[in-house]
Each structure stands twice: as structure tokens, then as C-alpha cells.
Amino acid sequence: MNRLLPLLIALVIAVVAFSSSVFVVRERDYALVFALGEVKRVISEPGLYFKLPPPLQNVVTLDKRLLTIDLQEAERIQTSEKKNLLIDSFVKWRVVDPRLYYVTFGGNERAARERLQAQIRDALNASVNVRTVKDVVSLERDVIMQEVLTNVAKRAEGLGVQIVDVRLKRIEFAPEIAESVYRRMESERIRVANEQRSIGAAEGEKIRAEADRQREQIVAEAYGRAQAIMGEGDAQAAGIYAKAYGEDLGFYSFYKSLEGYKASFGKPGDVLVVDPSSDFFKYLKSSSGK
Q: Band domain: from which residue to which, for each copy (predicted)?
């Protein structure tokens, strides 16, 4: 038993030394192998690796996944009109140079976030300060995001990180100016609505006037055509009458005299003062008109 004890102790020491010399790098991590405080290796591929046991060498892992900085509070930023806006934003970033990142921040992700937040704040100020409220809220929002992305990405190159994307989530007016801005926006919308109503009323009057002109033109043309047709009809009727009456002039004279009597004595109480011996009464005196 006394002979086996040293062997067991040696075996335990070997197992402990072996286990402290083996480490696993996951797919989502970088591994930095340190020797006496100096980075000796940077491992980015997942797998099983070996190193010297502590304190000769030790391993520090860094997250290489896509990370998000989501600001907890909206940034108060002033526009070119001296109006304060509250802007919420978020940033997607990742570690691309583990050695530089560790040297800069000592592997402290919180310190990296705080540095990037400060840079984002500076970039937002630089882009918003030179624009109006209207530009920031609607007209140039995409331009501002691209400017902030370019600005922060350039400054982050020396930190060992890559800025993947920058987005403005929410833009609101500061409470002290919100009411006045809303009232001004309301007045502007009312002005535009009244202007559109005026334009619509003018267009309506123009359309109605054109319709009335076309109606008058159509009625006049129709009346002219009707008169022409009536004239042609009267001419044809007169021709037919003339042809018919020309075949018996005596009958024609008798018929016309009857129409004259009818027109002269058509109503009760009609009085006609004329010489009884005139030709007008010739058919009243004799059916032959003699």
C-alpha cells in the first residue's frame, strides 16, 4: 500500500496538470492565450486546444457574436433651430480584432459599450445640430443614420470592433416644445387644407362654367337643327298643299274661307265689323261663292 501511494499522487498530479492544459473554444468565442500577461495566441476557430498549465499560461475568452447597444434613455439633442429632440437609437457591433480589443478595454464589455455610446452620442449631435426638426423627423432620417454609421465605424476601427448598423428607433419633441410644435403643425395642416379647398372650389366653378357653355352650345345647335327641319317640313307641306289645291282652285278658295270663318268666329262674343257685301262673306251668301 505504501508503494502505491506515490503512484496515486503522481497520477492525480498528472490528471490535474493535463486538465488545466486543455481548453475548448466555442463557436461564439475568441480565445486569447496569455503567458506572463502577454498575449501569445489568438484563437478564432472552435475546437479543443492545449496550453501550458497555470500560472505559465492562462486563457481569456471574448464574445465574437453580433452584439447590441440599446440606449436606456433617449438622448436630448438640439437641432439647428435650437429645438430639443429626444432620440432613441441602437447599434449593432462585434469584436473583429480580439488582441486590440483586449488591449483597449481589458476584455471589459461594459467599458466598450460606454465608449461606443459616447461616440454614438457625439455622432448624433454632429448630424442633428446642422438640420431642422423637419429634416430629422422625416426628410433626412436615413441620411442621418448613414452619417452616424460612417462616423462611428471610422472611430471604432482603432478599438478592435466593427460597427455593423445604426438605427434611430424613436424621435420625439422635448416636453417643453412639444405643445408649440404640435400647434404649429396643426396650423400648417389647416392652411394646406384651406388652400386645397380653395383650389377645389375654383376647379369646380371652372368645370361648371364649361358644362354650362357646352349645354348652351348643344341646345343652340339642336334648336338650329330643329328650326331647319321644321322649315323643310313647312316647305314640303306647302308644296303638297299647293299641289293638292292646284287641282281644284274653287275648293281651295272655299276651304280657306272656312278657316277664316273659324278663326274669326271661334269664340262666343266675337264681333267682326266689316261690310256684308265684301268677298269675305261670299260663301255665306252662296255655297258657290257667286
A: 20-185
